[in-house]
Amino acid sequence: MRFSDHPVLIFDGACGTNLQQMDIPAAAWGGCDGCNEALNLYAPEIVVQLHQSMLEAGAMVIETDTFGASSVVLAEYGLQQQVREINLRAVENARRAIGGRKNCYVAGSIGPGTKLPSLGHIRVEDLAVSTRQQIEALLEAGVDCLMIETCQDLLQTKTAMIAAFEILQTSKLDLPVLVSVTIEQQGTMLVGSDIAAVVATLEPFNLFSLGLNCATGPRDMASQVRYLSHHWPKRISVIPNQGLPEVVDGRTVYPLSPEDFAQQMSQFVTKDGVSLVGGCCGTSPAHIAALSQKLAGVVPAVREVSA
After folding, report:
1. Rounded to an integer, what distance in angstroms lies between the CA atom of residue 129 and that of residue 135?
2. How far is CA 180 from CA 2, 92, 225, in A?
């Protein structure tokens, strides 16, 4: 089956928080402690192991360990000259994890970076150059789709989308482009845009899906998901945290059990017609396993979308 033929696509769980739980020796970071993307070069077996744990849990789509693999972010670790190499190796690691499994796909993860144009951190022109460099490497490596995720600024989102579609057109490639925005607990993106503004801004683009990820747990996303269900004409993704993060004894913890996470997520599919689901911060292979089991044989609800 093709990527687009599946009625429900189950994405993997968290990358960063799961890596933090692993016993990674100091040497594995290659002197770039905390740079998850550097592990693609210096300790690829760790990245492959994480991907495999998600696939064994039932994930169908693996997001590459490239959330911060643009020159803007990698410059903070002195790795800005290795954008292409890191993105190529990340896709290779995902493919190694998949091996001979059928109906499993690689999504090229493109994060928002650490500098937002609407806040004056970076010029749009510079952001476009950095984003294009990453997208070109991901496409060269052979991803099955592009996932522009954790978007906090519509100007940053549009910059990444325009770069993606221009490169795809020039390369004569036909790959799905997915966008996932982050809505904070107060009901807007970091720079203040609400879900209605997101839909109005992104609807003209030929996106495969639009959805939500990170920031909160599934329960706090319910109103935004409901809005998308009635106003977004294409597929919807929901990839939340393992509940709203809490600080306990100085540590960040996420409260939702795998069963509770799966139960809340299944409602989005059966009631709101969501067809792309997975987990963000905190979600473990156990959460993806529970989600996969809960959605076995489930078909998304039919949506009535307002004109």
Report:
1. 10
2. 21, 24, 12
The answer to whether the CB of 43 falls within 8 A of the CB of 28 is yes
246 CB-contact burial (10 Å; exposed 0-12 / middle 13-18 / buried 19+): exposed
For residue range 222-238, what is the model confidence (pLDDT) as tens digits? 999 999 999 999 999 99
CATH number assigned to the domain with residue range 3-294, chosen from the 4 options 3.20.20.330, 3.30.750.24, 3.40.50.880, 3.50.50.60: 3.20.20.330
Tokens 């799966």, residue located: 262
Residues 6+ apart with CB under 8 A from 132: 163, 166, 167
> Which residue, among 74, 160, 75, 41, has the nearest Cα to 112 in the 3D structure?
160
Per-residue pLDDT reduced to its tens digit, 71-82: 999 999 999 999
Give the C-alpha separation, 257 to 199, whole Å.
Answer: 31
Residues of the chain with pLDDT under 50: none
With beta carbons less than 8 A apart as the criterion, state whether 275 and 60 touch: no
